């Protein structure tokens, strides 16, 4: 999957935060008649997770085949054991991805769901309360975590379904019943009637055919930008080619705005800050989001091209983990996402070159040291791919 394969006849709905996402997800699960595939990095059985589990159980009671893949590290070994026992008892089929690092350091970081091949969800939202820290689930946030997902209805849902089947097959055995079940809905009507449809594509990153697909799509989009790039990422630590693409766009007169999460991980913040001097000198505008946890991984270019997904702009997402994004060529969708991004930017803190360079020398030295350590670690665990 070296390039985006766009399909038409899609209806998309942008969903922001859990308040927008979870009701839509539960409604789709409750309407399922054949099969459900759900993948998530974190599945935490709090008040939100319980609602999802209950919906999945209701689906099983209707004889719907339910398949869930959870990441062992993201969800946590203890929670995985609890969920496994409950899933076994209720008839939910499940796989735990890469327990005890048996497949190396790779993680299942993508968040997607496909229902009856007709409806799909792709984004960055894990299964847990928006007000709960995802890395310390006993603590609560002061404001809901900022994140996005997309509800997809149409031909692209079938593409996402095929990818979900592929990973389910890779992570466990596929029964004859499941193999036959794949084709159950292929001949049902999938056209969307009385709806404005858009052009959209689905891209993944894995360690097989799609090792650099998401980065390539970003590089191509940034390389052809002529007006504006809005890039949102919780963690910013891409390779040199990605950073150079941002600088090159700014040098062409493109307005490049980078919104980065701040305050979550001290070392991660330091790595991102090591890039600030060059980015700012090259004309990139940098903002730090400190109001709450920034978890959205989205971008809009020239108010025409947009992406929403699970991939951060860092070494783990671009060079190691399993990730999934949707890419959209549609002005209405792009402008809606742009408005949401601009609102977040209005709540963020701009980074100024002069004030940054006036920070104590030992802090700036630590930023560079953190970058060197991060680069060394990334090159080791990605077998030299991080560049």
Automatic annotation (TrEMBL):
The top EC class is: transferase
Record's bilayer topology term? Peripheral membrane protein
Q: Where is the PLD phosphodiesterase domain?
A: 104-131, 290-317
Q: Where found?
A: Cell membrane
Instruction: Supply the InterPro entries for this chain.
Output: Cardiolipin_synth_ClsB, PLD-like_dom, PLipase_D/transphosphatidylase
Q: Which SMART domains match?
A: PLDc (SM00155)
Q: Mind listing the UniProt keywords for this protein, alphabetically?
A: Cell membrane, Lipid biosynthesis, Lipid metabolism, Membrane, Phospholipid biosynthesis, Phospholipid metabolism, Transferase
Q: Give the active-site positions.
A: 109, 111, 116, 295, 297, 302
Q: Record's Gene3D superfamilies?
A: Endonuclease Chain A (3.30.870.10)
Function summary: Catalyzes the phosphatidyl group transfer from one phosphatidylglycerol molecule to another to form cardiolipin (CL) (diphosphatidylglycerol) and glycerol.
Similarity section: Belongs to the phospholipase D family. Cardiolipin synthase subfamily. ClsB sub-subfamily.
Name of this protein: Cardiolipin synthase B
User: Organism source for this protein?
Assistant: Oxalobacter aliiformigenes
Q: What is the lineage of its organism?
A: Bacteria, Pseudomonadati, Pseudomonadota, Betaproteobacteria, Burkholderiales
Gene, per the UniProt record: clsB
